[in-house]
Amino acid sequence: MDAKVYKHSQGRSLSLQDLLDYFRRQGSMRVSDLHLKVGCPPVYRVDGDLQKLKGAPLDRPALDAFIAALLNEAEAGPYRQHGSVDLSIMAETMQFRVNCFRDSEGPAIAIRALEATVPAVEQIGFPNQVWRDIIRRQQGLVLVTGITGAGKSTTIASLIDRIAQTDACRIITLEDPIEYRLHSRQAIISQREIGRDVPSFERGLRDCLREDPDVIFVGEMRDRESTAWTLTAAETGHLVFSTLHTRDARGSVTRVLDMFPTDRQDEVSSQLSLGLAYVVCQKLVPRKDGQGRVVAMEILSNVYAASNLIRMRKLEQIYTLLQTRTKDIPEERMITMERSLAMLVRDGKVDAREAERYADDVQAYLDELQHITSQGEPAPGQ
User: Fold this and answer.
1) On the CB side of 300, how many CA atoms lie within 13 Å of its CA?
2) Tally of structural domains, the chain
3) What's the pTM value of the predicted model, to 2 decimals?
4) Could you tell me the residue range of the domain that residue 288 belongs to?
5) Within a domain: 26
6) How far apart are CA 335 and CA 8, in angstroms?
7) Are 164 and 151 in contact (CB under 8 A)?
8) Cβ neighbour number for residue 121 with a 10 Å cutoff
9) Do the Cβ atoms of 334 and 340 come closer than 8 Å?
10) At residue 205, what are phi and psi to the nearest 5 degrees?
11) Of 213, 114, 203, the residue nearest 160 (C-alpha)
12) In this structure, is residue 202 part of a structural domain?
């Protein structure tokens, strides 16, 4: 990690540790990723945008040396055999999620920065108090969805960490790789890494149901088998957290159903209508002051009306439900992505034009913005 193998400029070479130190200096809320590939200088993702480091392009010997420093013997085998491998590392005080892979020009590395400690759930940025309802639940499936890099794992880690602080319960996680190191407090926590501690999510879930868990975290519902076992776990009296790469609540429900053949979708929609607790879809939006990003969320609570829509597969009506059940009380606490963005604009956290770029339905966002700003207090500084 400390070998200075990248010839950055004339007379100056950098190590992988030097490149990772930039995350520590700037903070992972601003600098989220580092991309390393042959023929390009190191590229950081800062506040959501890619920025190239000023310097010489990386060559293959430098990439080979970086990968050799990152991989242990168990990880090097899958990399050589399959051309890619996931892992997590600690460097100084920071945790990183790493994917080493090969492209047409040679080896490449994608590095995602994680906070060394799990942020308090109050700092995540929920637009209402729904997180209090989530951590009090005894069973059901909580789906946290969004694109890669939207902060899904951080949100789930903060919720599980709060449960571990307050409840004497058994928590088991299945992750690929482990991103946040969670500490047993009132709870007992076992974190299992796919490929190291268990061969697959499906096998981990089979095992998990025999290990007396109260809370289960499934890193991702990747396929039909892992999804089926996740739904079963939620249905049989466990609180289950998992993630999907979807942009909104309706799309999340649709994605789960589409994993199964047509002749099983009635059965699965009924199972999902009973087992689902919440869908939390999130995006990270650049702050107006340029100091990092802030979360915008769409939240679906599976109240009776939502459950009925899922069971009947009238998913096109979910958005209307999100628009109408918005009171900050346990029986409601729903919100559309467009309303969440409009609230961030009203509060002076996000620029109105920037928020429009992140809206799934631009006209709905503009309508929400007009309604919120006309009914509420003006944004700070206006």
Assistant:
1) 30
2) 2
3) 0.87
4) 121-335
5) yes
6) 48
7) no
8) 21
9) no
10) -70, -40
11) 213
12) yes
